[in-house]
Amino acid sequence: MNFRQTTLVAALALSALPAFAQSAAPASPWSATGNVGVFSDYTFRGISQTNRKPAIQGGFDIAHSSGFYVGNWNSNIDSEAYSGANIEMDFYGGFKATYGDFGLDIGALYYYYPGSGNTTAFPGSSKVDNTELYIGGSWGPLTAKYFYAVSDFFSLPDSKGSQYLDLGFAYDVGSGFGINAHVGYQKLKGGAKVTEIGSTSTTDSITDYKIGATYTVEGFVLGAAYVGTNRDLTGGMAGYTNKNISDGSFVVSLSKSF
């Protein structure tokens, strides 16, 4: 091999080094995911937030490999129920970790209702929001999560300290099918009392439940669930006709994560 050939071989070898270094670059510790869905009803802790009408929902999450994360989730709502707001925007952040078969999730969640407190359309109304701290755990198909309101619960007077316990079950049965179930218990404080339809007395607790199934195909998730509570409640637009928005009902959905 002469000098010119040697020089050519060396040049080719050196030109390949940057490409090799680039392909071996470490993966970013950050990840971002999103989700969007269409639902026949938006139920929050068993109670319809859209007067039994459809909802479009979606959000995103940004997570770090250390376990810290932040995110946002949004849905249309019944503006009559939220003093003029027609959208709910949730902002949250926390830390997730796994320890063997167990998972841990700790964080804070802020519920924001832009446009609430519209005194022109709703005289005497005030801004609606809520802030909760949460801690959750998981083991296999089982989950448990506890929420504690550090603000007045959805701006109801003297309701700081309202609590919610969420117990869940989700299992993949194979071939794209899954089953899930949930029961939750809401303990209200202060002015966060509710009055059932046909009653003059108030109550400070609500139990809600859900049992459902999903089918995943081409990344899309078809869902169907029976959702309800142990109370008969009305409010917002439903209040004009005394319609029950917390009794058992079927909710169907189509969603996708990306």
Beta-strand proportion = over 45%
Query: Under the CATH scheme, which architecture would be assigned?
Result: Beta Barrel
Q: Secondary-structure element sequence?
A: HEEEEEEEEEEEEEEEE
**What Rg, in angstroms, do the CA atoms define?**
25 Å
CATH third-tier fold name = Porin
CATH C-level name = Mainly Beta
Q: Considering the protein shown, what is the CATH homologous superfamily?
A: monomeric porin ompg
Report the principal-axis shape: globular
Number of strands: 16
Termini, distance in Å? Answer: 55 Å
Helix content: under 10%
Written overview of the protein:
Mean pLDDT is 93; it is low at 8-12. The strands form 3 sheets. A 12-stranded antiparallel barrel has the order 1-4-5-6-7-8-9-10-11-14-15-16. The chain has a two-stranded antiparallel sheet with strand order 2-3. Helix content is 8%, strand content 52%. The chain has 258 residues and is mostly beta strands. The protein has one domain: Porin (Beta Barrel). It has 1 helix and 16 strands. The longest helix is centred in the N-terminal third of the chain and has 21 residues, at 3-23.
Features:
258 residues; mainly beta; Porin; 12-stranded antiparallel β-barrel; two-stranded antiparallel ribbon; 1 helix; 52% strand
Write the layout of secondary structure elements.
Layout: H1 3-23, E1 30-39, E2 43-44, E3 47-48, E4 55-64, E5 68-76, E6 87-99, E7 102-112, E8 129-139, E9 142-149, E10 163-174, E11 177-187, E12 194-195, E13 202-203, E14 205-217, E15 220-229, E16 249-257
Antiparallel strand pairs: 1-4, 1-16, 2-3, 4-5, 5-6, 6-7, 7-8, 8-9, 9-10, 10-11, 11-14, 12-13, 14-15, 15-16
